[in-house]
Specification:
The chain has two domains: 2-199, TIM Barrel (Alpha-Beta Barrel), CATH 3.20.20; 201-233. Helices cover 55% and strands 16% of the residues. The protein has eleven helices and eight strands. Bound molecules: erythose-4-phosphate (E4P). Erythose-4-phosphate (E4P) binds next to strand 6 and helix 7.
Length: 233
């Protein structure tokens, strides 16, 4: 399974890259705004350089299919590792499958976003999406079980040998990451604030403290034995 960061924070991404756990990054206009990246192009180009060959998802911001296609082509021209995020429908509920199909047909990697159901996911894959972003938190907001959607989409992809990858986003708690991983997500995109919670454990700290203290005691014993030998020898 891969881990992406759901963030536009350069320093956070750099930090977790050096720790070897980041396979890519996803953004959306709300994340860019929250992380003070107001110039999408400059911010995306900078993150793409930081990521090397790892993918960066950047989302279109129009309801109009023609403008979506133009934005998608423009974004894809910024760097080799840009993945264009297209919502499954626009604000009015109109299908964006034609945009997904058009960009994918031009060789542009598409991440279909804001997916809340099995049916949306399979249509996005049929249209040519390389990634389908299933929004776990927003599925749960509506009283539905994200793990069921993830498991069903994964089973369908495997059954028909589609290469598309499931990204699980809209992570609200560490338990969402665990559930997504176990339900068959190829990728979980994690807001960086959850990574310290995933890695740390109070009892691990106590365990490491015990080992360090005992190592210091062993060193003291060596010093004690050497001092006694010097006196008697
Ligand atoms: C990731 O690709 C999504 O844009 C993001 O996880 C959405 O999260 P939210 O539901 O917390 O806005």
């Amino acid at each position: 399974m891969q881990i992406f960061l759901d963030s536009a924070k350069y320093d956070e991404i750099e930090n977790w890259l050096t720790q070897g756990v980041v396979d890519g990054v996803t953004t959306n206009p709300s994340i860019m705004l929250k992380d003070s990246v107001y110039d999408c192009e400059a911010g995306a180009r900078r993150l793409c350089r930081l990521l090397g060959s790892r993918p960066l998802s950047v989302e279109v911001t129009s309801n109009n299919p023609r403008e979506m296609l133009e934005q998608g082509r423009t974004f894809a021209g910024w760097a080799e590792n840009v993945v264009v995020k297209i919502p499954i429908v626009n604000e009015r509920g109109e299908s964006c499958l034609g945009v997904i199909h058009g960009l994918s047909g031009e060789g542009i990697a598409v991440n279909t976003t804001a997916i809340l159901s099995f049916n949306q996911a399979i249509l996005a894959v049929k249209a040519g999406a390389a990634y389908v972003s299933i929004f776990a938190g927003r599925i749960a907001d509506e009283g539905n079980d994200a793990a069921v959607v993830i498991r069903n989409v994964r089973q369908w992809l495997d059954q028909w040998s589609y290469a598309a990858k499931i990204i699980v986003g809209s992570i609200r708690a560490v338990i969402d990451i665990q559930q997504a991983a176990l339900a068959g997500a190829h990728i979980v995109t994690i807001p960086p604030q959850f990574l310290p919670k995933m890695v740390d454990h109070k009892y691990t700290r106590d365990t490491v403290r015990q080992f360090n203290e005992d190592a210091r005691k062993a060193q003291a014993q060596i010093a004690h034995v050497q001092a006694a030998a010097a006196v008697h020898g």
